[in-house]
Design goal:
The protein is α+β, with helices and mostly antiparallel strands. The protein folds into four domains: 56 residues; 196 residues, Biosynthetic peptidoglycan transglycosylase-like (Penicillin binding protein transpeptidase fold, Orthogonal Bundle), CATH 1.10.3810; 36 residues, no CATH class; 319 residues, Beta-lactamase. The protein has 29 helices and 20 strands. A five-stranded mixed sheet has the order 2-1-3-15-16, with no helix packed on it. A five-stranded antiparallel sheet has the order 7-6-20-19-18, sandwiched between helices. It has a two-stranded antiparallel sheet with strand order 4-5. The N terminus and C terminus are likely disordered. Its main location: membrane.
Length: 805
Amino acid sequence: MSKKKTTTNNKKTGADSGNKKGYNKTKRGIIKTLWGIFGLMVAAVIVFFGLLSVGAIGYLPNIDELENPIDRYASQVISSDNELLFTYSLSDDNRIMIDYSDLSPHLISALVATEDIRYYSHSGIDIIGLGRAIFKTVILQREESGGGSTITQQLAKLLYSPRATSKLQRVFQKPVEWVIAAKLERYYTKDEIINLYLNKYDFNYNAVGIESATRTYFNKTPRELSIEEAATIIGMLKNSSLYNPVRRPEITLDRRNVVLSQMRKAGHITRQEFDSLKQLPLEIDFNRSGHIDISAPYYRQHLAKIMMAEKPQRKNYASWQNQQFTEDSLAWIEDPLYGWCNKNFKSDGSKYNIYTDGLKIYSTLDSRMQKHAEDAVTEHMGGYLQNEFFREKRGRSYAPYSREVSDQVEDLMLRAMRQTDRYRILRNEGMSEADIIKNFKEQPVEMKVFSWEHHEIDTVMTPWDSIRYHKNYLRTGFMAMDPYTGHVKAYVGGPDYQFFKYDMVTTGKRQIGSTIKPYLYTLAMEEGLTPCTPLVHQPITLMDENGNPWTPRNPGHTSGETVTIKWGLQRSSNWVTAYLMGQFSPYAFARMLQSFGLKTPADPVVSLALGPNDASVYEMVGAYSSFINKGIRVEPLLVTRIEDSYGNEISAFVPRMKEIFSESTSYKMLDMLTAVVDGGTGNRLRWRYNLKGAMGGKTGTTNNNSDGWFMSFTPDLVAGAWVGGEERSIHFDQMAYGQGASMALPLHGLFYQKVYADPELNYTDDGKFDIPEDFNPCAGSERYSPDFYKSTEPVQSEGIDDIFN
């Protein structure tokens, strides 16, 4: 029995031994295969990151860009008083760069403790943090896994990663950011990386960078922040839209306390300090008006547009843009600044780019006068006129439109809807017109809307309501210029560039109304008439080319008295204007308008005398410069010179002038246009704004109060302002508020007051026009009437400018 049993056991042992050898061989094969796969993976990773590091794949920036990732190539625009107005860069951020030394130590402690505890010990990638993030995401399937991104990686993402549209795209962005982070660590110190990161982050409300953020939320500089304030700011880095102390104070408070807890764990604050600080309420000093905005945003946009303009080609213009193509083509030939970047070449033969070539552009704008102009717009539009418009339209179903189009509001709104980006996006996605309208009217969304008082308001409303809401706000354009050099001193293209990007100084053109009259009077003076030429003030009927009669209305005036041409301009009489129009061919007058620099062709009809044609504020200011400058029109000048990044002057710009009429006619026009201010429709500059020095001007109001204009000039400045609705059907129904003297004139009054009160500016309210002492504006008027000149004293009534203009 025992032998048999032993034999059996031996057989089993041999079989087991053979199986074990086979198993071990298979195991070794599997292990070998796994090591081979692992080796291939390691090699693939090495090759992958090697290719990334040399830029063979991915979007790795050039070495030069990595060495100078923030605004190395930004072009600077310098004001005439040697202040930095703004910069042009690829990032195009509203950012004020500050040094690391200007940061509060609490900011640094909170940032490192919360975002990257091993920041000072790694070289751009935290292996421990990365491993933890992968484990939590892949193994534990946690959505909120901490990310594993270092401060350096977050900077790389801010600087170079485009916004990911999917999780997969974001996964592929990560390796590139790792490579960039490693390179950033080679080129920068740890302190510099922190400084770059905090200067780059967007904290909402157009507060890009730590300087703007601390001023916006706490009205302080970064160095002045307390511990709890620094913790609030750093807490926003996780998601500034979610952890918004203005809109979501509760969860922002919780996030602040998390940061404070991390600071305690890292030893930056004691347990007692933490217990005390976490009990403090979340207190902010939200100072939207005090945060740092880009200066002269409308001027900034216009300057970039014209400097970067390409040579006009008809194929690039729509069928309805014939006039724009003509104007751009002439500008390309005549204006050295228009298309400058595409008409000038660097030493290597390439064209200039204001966003990447580090140019220094010396502007004609005066930073102080620009601020005075912006403040005047805010004070008049935001503090007075807009409130009157709201009051007039309150409770009216057709608001903000006028009563004349009350039955067309739905169609007008639909047209406005179709001009929005939202409409185009939904249309491209295949949504039907009916569904788009439903989406606009019934789907409330979170948004920011404009407010004069708060600048912007966070709210929830439908896109349809937001369109109508913003149409309630009146628009404006204001520009001031030196009449002799053409230097543009102030340029305000609208109420607020963030919400109303359409520039009403250069891009927008509106009917000019009675501001056209001085051009007709100039033609009359050139043909031998004088300010003192008398005529009977009565209705005038002119015949057009088709034999149809035209008799202009003249509200507020009586007929039958003998008046002068000067009186007619002073009171903006339509009958006197029609009389002068009857003395000349409409074709001659239309040519005269072109000589004044009005680019849009005017129809040569008799009614042209009352200003139905369109022009921009920019064109009108240039035109009115001729009245001061002895008949010579000066084209507005935006830039005096441009230097390259090495300080070499590349281009210099000089005023472009054109003689329109004689010097003696200019003196006659000065005599009449000063009378408009001294005792006519512009008289409130005297009695309301107490301006004493020599000054001329002209009011203008178009049909239904759709456009309110005022043009003014002193011996040193010429300025123009337009005020109106986004559409011509949006306007005051009452003329008391809708006329040019009420809508546009106050901008001039406030602007001049501020300029004269500024001790840093050399402008005084006691100037006189350069007119020869022996010049007699009435010389020659005897030939037109045996009665010679019947003197009329200027009416000093405070209400004279409310009659008609």
